[in-house]
Amino acid sequence: MRSFRGGVHPPDMKHLSADAPIEVLAAPEQLVVPLSQHIGAPARPIVQAGDDVRVGQLIGEASGFVSAAVHSPVSGKVKAVTRTRHPLGNTVDALLIENDGQDRMAERVGEDNPNWRDVSPRDIVDTAMKAGIVGMGGATFPTHVKLSPPESKHIDTVILNAAECEPYLTCDYRLLLERTEDVIEGLKLLVRALTPPDAPPNRVSGIIAVEANKKDVFLKLQDMLQDKTNLLARLMPVKYPQGAEKQLIKTVLNREVPPQSQRGLPMDVGVVVQNVGTALALYEAVRFNKPLYERVLTVSGDAIDTPGNLLVRVGTSTEHVLKARGITDSASVVISGGPMMGIALSRLSTPVNKGTSGLLALSSSENWETMPCISCGACVRHCPMQLIPSKFSTLGDVGRYDETEHWNVIDCIECGVCTYVCPSRRPIVQHVKIGKAVVVPLMRARAEELRRQQEKEHG
Amino acid sequence: MCPVLPVTVAASAGGYTLFGVLVMLVIGAVLGLVLFAASRFFKTDVDERVEKILDVLPNVNCGACGFGGCAAYAEAVVYKGSACSLCAPGGADVECRIAEIMGASVGDREPLVAVVHCGGGTRSAHSAAGYYGIASCRAASVPGLNSPKACVFGCLGMGDCVAACKFDAMVMGDDGLPLVIESNCVACGACVRACPRNIIQLHPLKSFVHVYCINTDKGRDVRKACDIGCIACMKCEKICPVDAIHVINNVAVIDYDKCISCGKCVKECPQGIIVNMRKTRKEIDRLRQPVPGGTS
Amino acid sequence: MQYVKLVIAAVFVSNFVLAQFLGLCPFIGVSKKTSSAVGMGIAVIFVMTLASFVTYLVYWKLLYMPLGIGVDARDYLNIVVFIVVIASLVQFVEMVLQKSMPALYRALGIYLPLITTNCAVLGVAQLNISRFGSGGFAAGLLGATLNGFASGLGFTLALLLMSAIRERLDEADVPLPFRGVPIAFVVASALALAFLGFSGMA
Amino acid sequence: MPPDLQVSVSPHIRSQETVPRIMWTVAGALVPAGLVGLYVFGWRILVVVSLSVLSCIVTEAASLRARKLPLARLRDGSAVVTGVLLAFVLPPHAAWYVPVVGGMVAIGLAKQLFGGLGHNVFNPALIGRAFLQFAFPLQLNHAEWPYLIRRPLLEIFRGDVASADAIAGATPLAVLKDAPGEVFSGGWSFWDLFSGYMPGCIGETSSVAIILGGALLIALGYVNWRLPVAYLAALVAGVLLFPVAGADGALRAGLPAIFDGTYPWQNLAVHVFSGGLMLGAFFMITDMVTSPMTSRGQVIYGVIGGIMVALIRLYGGYPEGVCYSILIANGFRPMIDRFTMPPRVFGQRDIAAGGTS
């Protein structure tokens, strides 16, 4: 099986939660629903303290095109507009909602929309926007933006990313296993949304890419998609970061997305990548016009008594979710997301949001002593973006972060492979983040300078 | 070059010097002509300001300015716009003269000093989590890393400002907060740029009352993060006789043009976060004196 | 065939910088950045080759043969004449560079005129005289020029190695008192130690 | 609820690979060569090895304390590896001060002065060896190097190496240098050469043991096989291709001689299997810190080293060129890295070509 160059094989630890079917976690009394759970401008609250809300009712409208709507996960009363911690570390505006426990549905939410199959591509994109659907693989990029590429870019493939290459995480696997038909319907909707009106139906093909450690799902998908002309399942080798967009496209279609310096995006090579959860959410939104206010995530780790996969309402606090599965005192690190790219939380009050694919509690302590780089070349061999990671850390040690631009630091996807394999335990990803924080303003200033000069010449 | 040059003359002892002079004359003349022709042929025009700056510079070619020599530095100032103040041996007057040649004016402005607007040291600010990673403030405030300190605005105390200061005007206090040694501080702004949380600002040297907090959260959240943070109780705003202090976005901010450093707000503030620097200056100078055996 | 051996000898065995320790000041001065090192290397090769050619010519045609001044005394003018010739050559190169490659000219800065006083260039001129005196004039001239070129090549090789090493050392945690030039000298001595392996070569 | 949590930038898990593990594995891979040395030269080599390792550790500790760095860095085992490698390139009869001074120079001058582990440009053990070559020429270039002949295993610890039945003989390379004709007249066969039963330095003699250790490192992925192969191939090519003055003074390359069958195979065998070549190829030149990162760079690096050995051995004054060739290759390494590791990025090839994996 072909794959991208580089990458690494961490122990996948999926056995802890792979066989646990998805359970519903009851919503707590109080939920803090963040207004910015997506890439783009935060949503504007349209309810005040004291308003009564129902499940699925719009409580924050998208401000601008690259933004996403936010809906109430429970029915009850809005207590206040407060601020809360975002996993990324910054604090964001949020709505504190008191749950009355009755789960009163907003109107038309949950009703089966009879002619959902022949909805026009335009309506699919509108539904995605109204339902606040965002990429659920962790990037949380608003789906309606991805589904409306500019005319110049013609899309020929939609890839459903079922790689789930992060260790411990099994939520996509369980979704695929238990709700295979709905995910396939979701993929069909995605394909139809991206098929230009004048083109023949099977111009855009849909591929569900699964890693080889989830063979049962792959076989099930294969026989369900036999008769479909433009839909197929593809098996991929087990390797981290197989699920990263550029690496996924390289493995599945052997195309390479151009680098950041040329503002490369998957649509430049005619591809749109979506997460399995996103496809399912789109299906539920189009058919049952159910907005995105809950998602499946994996709770696992060696400091969790009973690891499992839970359907959790957005806004539930991390503490509530972890307590539901029994967190032991040996936990020293709580991670939102996977162990390779996830974020270590300092406060368990941080609420679950649309992009939280996992909550892990690990007991391994993180005090690896950093040693000097012995230029063993492991990071250079394993880097999936074929960069020279050791350069970022050696330049970082002497504070010359501005020179990392020359070594393409902005193209780093921060997958963590270099830091994982480094025998000297050097925090290369942290050096990259600092490098980007130094280089991006420099590039912006230079572009600004260039633009002002051109204006002076033509002005 | 006729080979018949009087060999006999060369043979006599006196002839060596005469002969040597003769040969040098010939070679010097020939090469001089060649170079003259070449300089005409390879004429390049040079910005005359480079010559002027070169005259001003001490022409010691010491390289302290970071360039290969005085000529390289002169060209760097003219072509690349490098700073006028890099000539160490030249000092201030060379800097002024270069600035005049380059047309920039070096006006004298009111002396400023750096102030660290955070009082939440290890004794009063709460820690949120153990931090593992590169020991620098900039590293500890990258996106995707939760703040190790409960207060997401406060000083992380990892000394980026102390490292950035080239005039030894910053020293790390024992409670994990940087202290500004005002006599050394030339307000160059290096620390202001170095602090990733923008806690350090430049204020007039003459005013010595400062608010040591920039936490814009509401009072309830501030208390959770730090014992002495500004809880926006507005008392200072009411007491101030010259209306120089206002609570903007949940934190008290001083307008240094109006402030007369009367210190009324210092006594009024329940959190004690507004501090009269006069008495602490003595303490800082004490800290600056090299304690025998101690390291700053 | 012995020309190949002459080149190998000049580049490796009796490398001007690492074996004969000539031309150390530009070797340390310019090796801070590889770009300026390349420029300096080319300039030195050009000057050394030309200088060898011209000085050998001047010596045999002008100073020694026609005037027939006493055998032992004929060398007293060498140093003076060679320096003048080399100085004018460097001046010529400087003008050419300023015109054609101003960026390189500015990068080299003070070190380009410094080639005049560079002992390597004067050294090669002197060496040529003593080594290629015996054979015929034409063979000697070719040998001298080739030796000049090879020595220039050896100098440039050492300079490039040094500049690459120093750029790597800029990222190293060298103890404070040794940063910059001191560590450059330590590296130069280590390189010399390595090149000593070639001593004794025929 | 758990006490204060820990935060750090992702990733939060690491592989098993650590620097101490690599260093101790390399030390382990050197053991076979050491055992053969012990058998051939007797217990005295233990004295030399321990002195060398001790000197390295003490020097590293002293310089770490001088630089106010945590002494815990000694645990990474790199000083021990340097000590063992240095001892392996010393003659068995070396006086006590030779390994001690060698260790001080290797760690103090070649490693700590450059900034400690990972920053040194030259292989510390070889800088030590080259320094000793000129500091104590008598010790290292001794013509007659003692070794024992066919001793039963149990008698390793009987008496000093210079005892009666120690046969002194010039190292094969020295013989090759002075009298290329009778290489194998000194009483040992090709197998002695290969197994290491001949005069030479402590850990260099046995090619079998070294290849065994090297294979282990290659299997574990700490050494890229291309580097030793390139180094050895370049040497063989150099030895065959460079013209050598034959008995009649005419310069003839070795290669044509192979075809008309007159080429003395023993010379090639001696070149490859004796002296420090094997130890250099598998342990010295492959030292991670001083070798290039990419495999393309390592091939060029190995070829340069191989050519240098050939040049020194064929034309130079010393019979043994490995130490200098690797030091010169170390000098070339930063330049090689500069040209074989340009800033590159995934997807740089144009979109149309699609590019292959």
Description:
The complex is a heterotetramer of chains A (459), B (296), C (202) and D (357). By secondary structure, chain B is an alpha+beta fold. Chain B folds into two domains: 55 residues, Electron transport complex subunit B, putative Fe-S cluster (3-methyladenine DNA Glycosylase II, Chain A, domain 3), CATH 1.10.15.40; 177 residues, Alpha-Beta Plaits, CATH 3.30.70. Chain B is built from twelve helices and nine strands. Chain B is elongated. Chain C is an all-alpha fold. Chain C has one domain. Helix content of chain C is 71%, strand content 0%. Chain C contains nine helices and no strands. The two termini of chain C are 13 Å apart. With 357 residues, chain D is mainly alpha-helical. Helices cover 54% and strands 4% of the residues of chain D. In chain D, a hairpin with a 5-residue loop joins strand 4 and strand 5. The chains are: A alpha/beta (459), B alpha+beta (296), C mainly alpha (202), D mainly alpha (357). Chains in contact: A-B, A-C, A-D, B-C, B-D, C-D. At the A-D interface, strand 15, strand 16, helix 11 and helix 12 of A face strand 1 and helix 1 of D.
Quick description:
Chain B has 296 residues and is of the alpha+beta class.
Q: What is the radius of gyration of chain D computed over CA atoms, rounded to a whole number of angstroms? A: 22 Å
The number of helical segments of chain A is 12
The structure class of chain A reads alpha/beta
Fraction of residues of chain A in helices? 25-40%
Query: What gap, in angstroms, lies between the N and C termini of chain A?
Result: 56 Å
- Largest interface, counted by CB within 8 Å of the partner chain's CB: A-D, 80 and 47 residues
- Along the chain, the helix and strand elements of chain A come as EEEEEEEEHHEHHEHEHEHEEHEEEHHHH
The major sheet of chain A is characterized as: 6 strands, mixed
Looking at this protein, list some descriptive labels.
heterotetramer; A: 459 residues; alpha/beta; six-stranded mixed sheet; four-stranded antiparallel sheet; 17 strands; B: 296 residues; alpha+beta; 3-methyladenine DNA Glycosylase II, Chain A, domain 3; Alpha-Beta Plaits; 2 domains; two-stranded antiparallel ribbon; 9 strands; 37% helix
What secondary-structure arrangement, pairings included, does this model have?
The complex is a heterotetramer of chains A (459), B (296), C (202) and D (357).
Chain A lengths: L21 E3 L5 E5 L9 E2 L6 E2 L4 E4 L8 E2 L4 E10 L5 E9 L21 H10 L12 H4 L10 E6 L8 H8 L1 H15 L10 E7 L3 H10 L6 E6 L8 H9 L17 E5 H13 L5 E7 L7 E6 L4 H8 L7 E4 L6 E2 L13 E5 L15 H5 L6 H9 L19 H5 L6 H31 L1
Parallel strand pairs in A: 1-14, 9-10, 9-12, 10-11, 13-17
Antiparallel strand pairs in A: 2-8, 3-5, 4-7, 5-6, 7-8, 13-14, 15-16, 15-17
Helix pairs in contact in A: 1-4, 4-7, 10-12
Chain C lengths: L1 H12 L10 H6 L4 H31 L13 H23 L1 H7 L2 H4 L4 H13 L5 H33 L11 H15 L7
Helix pairs in contact in C: 1-8, 3-4, 3-5, 3-7, 3-8, 4-5, 4-7, 7-8, 8-9
Chain D lengths: L4 E3 L11 H23 L2 H23 L11 H11 L8 H15 L12 H12 L1 H4 L4 E4 L17 E4 L2 H7 L11 H6 L11 H14 L5 H16 L2 E2 L5 E2 L1 H6 L5 H9 L3 H8 L10 H21 L6 H19 L17
Antiparallel strand pairs in D: 2-3, 4-5
